[in-house]
Write a structure and sequence with these properties.
This is Peptidase M10 metallopeptidase domain-containing protein. The protein is of the alpha/beta class. It has one domain: Collagenase (Catalytic Domain) (3-Layer(aba) Sandwich). The chain contains four helices and eight strands. The chain starts with a helix and ends with a helix. The protein binds zinc ion (ZN). Zinc ion (ZN) binds next to helix 3.
Length: 231
């Protein structure tokens, strides 16, 4: 299962490297201070009018994750992206589900690395308008894997934001490799929740919330849609 998903993601990335030549005349931004859009997978915007729905592979997952995602979902709606938490449906982590669904499941080490989860948008949606994606949380968080409460909460929010079209805003070294936690910070030292690995607020009251950098990224996804005349 894990292998199928990893191969599928890699294949998508490869395909996109060949097909990501911009075809739109409209100018839009795919990177800014503390945010980056997953343009290498062909996603440049989110729909300003459609409602995206988070669904879960099982009822146990729905119950487990709904309260943990709720504060971020409120924030995302406040930015203008319509996102609701839905119910249970079959999730095949190797294949995108219905349009505008962000499907959540659990897998053991979906990235092949202890403690890492995976999230990605469905690649190459028409006109670059994201249609949701797939999230696989590492199942070992719930079987004794040592993880700080804020790291867990931030990760649970980080991955669906990938599915909506946000990428890691990390700076890169000379070889193009992301510098771990190499991201812009607030004056209080908070880095974007999309910064890899383990970005986001570290207090009990703020963990699991988007920072201003992340909401700016969502706003850019909306702005890009409007720049293309997408309503
Ligand atoms: Zn990530």
């Amino acid at each position: 299962m894990r292998k199928i998903f990893a191969v599928s993601a890699a294949a998508a990335l490869t395909a996109c490297a060949l097909t990501s030549t911009p075809t739109h005349a409209a100018a839009f931004a795919t990177v800014g201070t503390g945010w980056r859009i997953t343009s290498q997978l062909g996603v440049t915007s989110v729909s300003p009018s459609k409602t995206y729905t988070i669904t879960f592979a099982t009822e146990a997952m729905r119950k487990r994750y709904t309260p943990l995602l709720a504060p971020a979902v409120t924030q995302i709606n406040a930015v203008g992206v319509h996102l609701k938490i839905g119910g249970v449906e079959a999730v095949n982590p190797a294949k995108c589900g219905p349009a505008y669904h962000v499907q959540i499941t659990e897998m053991y080490r979906p990235m092949g690395k202890a403690g890492f989860s995976q999230g990605m948008p469905c690649p190459n949606p028409p006109k670059g308008v994201g249609i949701g994606g797939i999230v696989a949380y590492d199942s070992e968080y719930w079987t004794g894997y040592p993880i700080k409460a804020y790291t867990l909460r931030n990760t649970l929010v980080h991955e669906p934001l990938h599915a909506l079209g946000l990428d890691h805003p990390n700076q890169r070294d000379a070889t193009g490799t992301e510098i771990p936690r190499g991201c812009v910070a607030t004056s209080y030292g908070n880095i974007p929740i999309m910064c890899s690995p383990n970005g986001g607020y570290q207090t009990i009251t703020s963990m699991g919330h988007l920072t201003g950098f992340d909401t700016a990224g969502l706003k850019a996804l909306l702005t890009n849609a409007k720049a293309q005349g997408i309503r």
